[in-house]
Amino acid sequence: MAFCRIVFPLLVLSVVSATTVPVYLWGNPLESSSKSNPLAVTTAQEFRGILKNELVDDPFLLVFIEESLSPEDFSRKNEKGESSFPFLQSFLSNSLYLPSVDDAYRVLNEANDKALRVRLSENGLTADIEDENNKVVFIVLSDAKDGESRYDMLRRHNDFMEEQFSKFEGNNVIGLYTARKPAWIIPESHFRVRRQAPAVNVSTPDYFMDGLRLYAKEITVSHGNTTNVLSGFSSGPSAFNGTTMNTTMHFEQASLTLNFQQAGGYWFFDSVDLEQSPSVSEHLLPTSDVHALIDFSYRCKQFISFSSVNESTVYTVSFEDMKIQPFFASSNESQPFGDSFNCVGFFSAPIWAGLFVVFILLAIMFYGVMMMMDIRTMDRFDDPKGKTITINAAE
Fold first, then answer.
1. Which InterPro entries does the record cross-reference, listed alphabetically (predicted)?
2. What is the pTM of this model?
3. SS3 content of the chain, % helix, strand, coil (to 5)
C-alpha cells in the first residue's frame, strides 16, 4: 500500500512530455540525497548529476530497459490485487524513484558508452553477465509474447530482475529500471476534428464477366440432401449471337453456363447448364420467370432457383439475393447496373393487408356516418302554431 500511495499521485506526469519516462534506482544500501518530486520533470542535465552522485563509489550497475514504461505501470495490479513489482517494493527504503525523466535512455547511453549490452529474448539472454570485466550492463527486455497481458509481462520482468540482482547482491551493486519511451502519450494540444465514420471494408459478391454483370450473395448447387456453396470463381467465355447470349462461370466445384435471350424489348434469363464432375451435365430451367426490359436489371431478394427437368436426378442451382443484367455485347467491369425490376410486385402482401384494413375501417366509418345522418326527431304531436310543449323535471 505504501508503494501505491507513493506512485499513484505521480501518474499525472505522463502528460508532461512525449520523451519522459520513469526511472527507478535501488541498491543495498542506496544512500541518496535526491528527493522525488511528483510535480516536476527531471531534465537530462539533472539526471546526469543524479547518476554521478549515486555512482560515486563505482558500483556494479545493472540497467534494465523496457521498450515502453509509464508511471501507471508501477501501480498496475491483477484481479487478486497483486502488484506487478513485488521485488521493487521490497527496496522502497533503499530506492530513488524519478517519475518523469527527460531523455533518460540517451543520458544512460552517453554516460556508459563502454557498457556490456545484452538482450533478453524468448530464448534467454544473448550473452553471459560477468562483473569482473564490465562494471555496467545494459539488459534490453524485448521478450514480449503474443497474447500476453501487460501485467503478466511486467511481473515476469520483475522476477527476472530479482534473479539477476540476486547473483551480485553480495557486491556493491545498484539496479536501474527504465525504458526507451513512455507506454502511452497524451498530446500537449487538444483539438477535435469532424470526420465521417470509416468505411467498412466488406467484400461484395460481385461477378464481372464479358457482357454480364451479376451480384449474388451466395450460389449453391443442390442434389438430394446435399447442398454445396460454389466458391473459387473465375470468369469464363461469353458468346453473343444477335438476340442470344451465353456466359460461363467456372467454380472449384462446378461450371455454370447462363443462357439469355431478348425479344419484344425484354430480355429473359432462360436456363442454366450445369457441368459437374464426375460426368454431370444438366439443363436447368427457372422455377419462376426472370426477365426485365432491355437496359434494365433484375433484382430479387428471395432465392431464384433453376431445376433440372429430369425428375429422377434433380439438380437445383439457387441464387440468393440476386441482381443480374445481360448487355448482349462486350463490356468491362465499370459497366454499371441499370434501373432494376424487382421480383416482388408493387402491391406486395403487406401492402394488400394494409389496404384491406383501411377499406374495412372506411366502411365502418361510412356506415356510422350514414346512421347518424338518418336520425329523426319525434315531432309528430307538435303544433307549429300552438304553444310549445314543455315537460319539467317534476313531471
1. Ac45_acc_su (IPR008388), VAS1/VOA1_TM (IPR046756), VAS1_LD (IPR046755)
2. 0.45
3. 20, 35, 40
